[in-house]
Amino acid sequence: MCESLIPLFCIAEVPAETAYAGGPDSPPSLFLVPEPGLLTDLRTAQPTHPPITNISSYPFLAHSVHDLAAFLDSNNPGSAISSHQFLIADQQTNEDNSLLFVDRGYEPGTTPQTVRLDAAHANAVPVAVQVATMDMNGVRVLVDEDGVFRGGASRPAARKGGPAPEKPLGGENRSASGGVSG
Known about the structure:
Blueprint: E1 6-10, H1 16-19, E2 30-32, H2 65-75, E3 85-89, H3 91-96, E4 98-103, E5 113-118, H4 124-130, H5 136-141, E6 148-149, E7 173-174, E8 180-181
Parallel strand pairs: 1-2, 1-3, 5-6
Antiparallel strand pairs: 3-4, 4-5, 7-8
């Protein structure tokens, strides 16, 4: 695996199945940070696989983005866990099943950029930003009216096993009578 695992912090009392339910869009790439004391050797960390058991403690309650970034910086040298991108399950997660995605960039002193992601995209979008197949501006352009990215403006979240959207066939223009025009 060339990309780092994306840490997920709960800063509000969010049920485990809400904080990280997984999604149909990619294999697990998130690491639910259970508590600070368990971050002793992250060089060999493995992704958290949903479903996970209930979260029994919330050591990051009310921590800010800055607090979490500083925590990652001080506890993460040589780790398999990213210190540049992370996810936050907060009170809004309980309300709309979205997570706050934070991208700190790779240059020191860069102002963090944030966007809310529907939980169905919590695996794929952070990894895509991490490996530079997407950027935060591109994600932000596609948020719905409520400010949450659900796969594209006004598009429902992807669902495994659902019908594919209709796609127009290219190269031909059909007239109103059904014939092909050139």
